[in-house]
Every structure is written in structure tokens, then in C-alpha cells.
């Protein structure tokens, strides 16, 4: 269960995270992150904690399956809240495959999406420094 201060409840907050935040898609879920807009160093300003909300549609499955997916996602995100910037809004939208997936698969997809949104893995980067789909060109212009 998420603590009360970390729950996203208002429709406007969901809309802000989805429309104005950054998005990272994975096979089982899509994560929207809107970083905190308040300055934590401003005098007299209260910094709100990171808040999270979940969207699990009927495409994921019946009510039992949807509730199971929401419980798993809440549990996973609760452990990752300290890594999020203060004042940020997070919306996790489950995709249809999330109903058949296990806890570890959801955890891997959530971690990968959050890493990308928090700037640890830039989009389109490959560990070798190049794009794996585009072969390196030699001096003659042909693929080696």
C-alpha cells in the first residue's frame, strides 16, 4: 500500500502527469513522470513528496486481474519512491500483457522505464555507443 501522502487522486494531477510529463514505454506498462516544479531551496516553501497513480483498463483483464496488477504495481512503486524527485507526479499505465505477467516481469519493466525517465539511460543509446540496427560504415562507405 502506498502511504496517503504519496497517492495521486485528483483527475487534474493525472492529466498533468500524462500531458506535461515525460513518457517511457515498455512491453507491459507505460510510465509518465512529471518532475516537481517547486524549488526545494526557496524560503518558506513546502516541498511535496513524490505522488503516484495507476491506470489499469479493462483491456488488462477482469476485475480480479486488474486489482492484482494494481496491487503489484503499488508494491513495486512504494519501494522506488525515494529515488523519485520531490514533488514529482508518476502515472503508471498497465498494458494488456500485464495481466498475464508475473511480479518479476513487471519489476523489470518498471525499473527500465524509471531509469530512462530519470536520465540514467538516454533514449536510443546502445552500450557500445552506436545504434545496433545501423552497421558501421568503413572508409569506402560500405558496411564492414
UniProtKB/TrEMBL annotation:
One example of a Gene Ontology biological process annotation: tRNA 5'-leader removal
GO molecular function: 3'-tRNA processing endoribonuclease activity; ribonuclease P activity; tRNA binding
InterPro entries: Ribosomal_Su5_D2-typ_SF, Ribsml_uS5_D2-typ_fold_subgr, RNase_P, RNase_P_CS
This protein's record includes keyword Nuclease: yes
Family matches, as Pfam families: Ribonuclease_P
SUPFAM superfamilies linked to this entry: Ribosomal protein S5 domain 2-like
Enzyme class, broadest EC rank: hydrolase
Keyword terms: Endonuclease, Hydrolase, Nuclease, RNA-binding, tRNA processing
Keyword hit for Thylakoid: no
Gene Ontology cellular component terms for the protein in this record: ribonuclease P complex
Catalyses which reaction(s): Endonucleolytic cleavage of RNA, removing 5'-extranucleotides from tRNA precursor
Region (Disordered): 121-144
E.C. number: 3.1.26.5
UniProt similarity note: Belongs to the RnpA family.
Record's function text: RNaseP catalyzes the removal of the 5'-leader sequence from pre-tRNA to produce the mature 5'-terminus. It can also cleave other RNA substrates such as 4.5S RNA. The protein component plays an auxiliary but essential role in vivo by binding to the 5'-leader sequence and broadening the substrate specificity of the ribozyme.
Assembly behavior: Consists of a catalytic RNA component (M1 or rnpB) and a protein subunit.
Name used for this protein in its record: Ribonuclease P protein component
Originating species: Streptomyces benahoarensis
Lineage, top ranks: Bacteria, Bacillati, Actinomycetota, Actinomycetes, Kitasatosporales
Protein's gene: rnpA
